[in-house]
Amino acid sequence: MPLRVTLMDVGREAGVSSATVDRVLNHRDGVRSRTREVVFAAAKRLGYVSDAPATPTPLSVGPLIELVFLLPAGTNTFIQNLRDQIEQQAALRPGLSVRVEALEGFNPQTVAARLVELQGQVGGVGLVAQDHPLVREAIRGLSRAETAVVTLASDIQNVPRAAYVGIDNRQAGRLAGQLMGRLIGTAIPAKVALFAGSLSYRGHEEREVGFRHIIREEFPGLQVVELREIMDDRQRAMVETRSLLDVHPDLKGIYNVGGGTPGIANVISARNLSRAIVLIGHEATEANKGLLLDGTLDAVIDQNPRVEAREALNILTAAVRREPYSYIPPRLQLVLKENLPYE
After folding, report:
1. What is the pTM of this model?
2. Burial letters 177-211, b for 16+ CB under 10 A, else e
């Protein structure tokens, strides 16, 4: 029997709080018209209401717009979900021709070379990429060619871009540190470790910085003993986790700022350490939901790929058409096994 859809489900779908959903569906004041449209559309899609007004096309349909999204290749499930959302939503939009390409995300030369090829060839580009001089200069070239750019999930600053679409990654790291300290509790002094895909991604670096800051500020009894880069790869995550636990058998916590969490969890479970080690990761993927349910993973910090895909498409379309658009940023959500997302 399917679960009943809740206000929280509608809020997650729309990228807003359940309180905002309540205000919209009860026709209360204090909500922008654009937000009302997004919430009504989400409520109708989930079957929460049957008579929600159809969402007007937010941007007028004009000449065909070509967009390209460059996403990292690999086993990162969040990136795969983001790709699926971009393709699914783009297929429903008249006037858009959207292509998603997978590149070696940890190779800035490859990304920069592809950006140079796209200069002046398409209306807009969305990308998840490292903050690297070659990538930054290629983005400046896109701007000179009047190609709109949106960065996704991990920002690239000091470049001419239409927007960054993603969560506040430093805030996410602080949230992870706050939770880590609370869950470990009085078992101090205690060792904790960090895993990252690559610190060349600004988002991963910002999560590390946020985590370290709050540990220093509020949990001085915790000692960050290691930081290992695993390139968002599950097999590499398993190898590094085995090595980490061999060196620090008394480890109490791991925060993984990127992908590859199932690989880390596999080793923790195999060594019967699920109750001994606090594991915090990112994204409520299907694999991570299973790990939350079996207790190997304690919490994930989630961002909504549906919202990020929608906003990226809207921003790029508006930028190409030189139309105004009010960006609705995705929100952080702390997910435990007791509040697993509806889908």
Report:
1. 0.83
2. bbbbbeebeeeeebbbbbbbbbbbbbbbbbbbebb
Nearest alpha-carbon partner for 37 in 322, 320, 325: 325
DSSP 58: S
Going by C-alpha positions, the residue among 58, 39, 57 that lies closest to residue 48 is 39
Q: Tell me which CATH homologous superfamily contains domain 7-56.
A: lambda repressor-like DNA-binding domains (1.10.260.40)
| pLDDT tens digits for range 8-65 | 888 888 888 887 887 788 776 667 777 888 888 888 888 787 654 544 444 445 689 9
Give the domain ranges of the chain: 7-56, 65-166+305-330, 169-302
**What is the DSSP track for 89-107?**
HHHT-TTEEEEEEEE-TT-
Q: Give the CATH H-level superfamily of domain 169-302.
A: Response regulator (3.40.50.2300)
Q: How far apart are CA 194 and CA 257, in angstroms?
A: 7
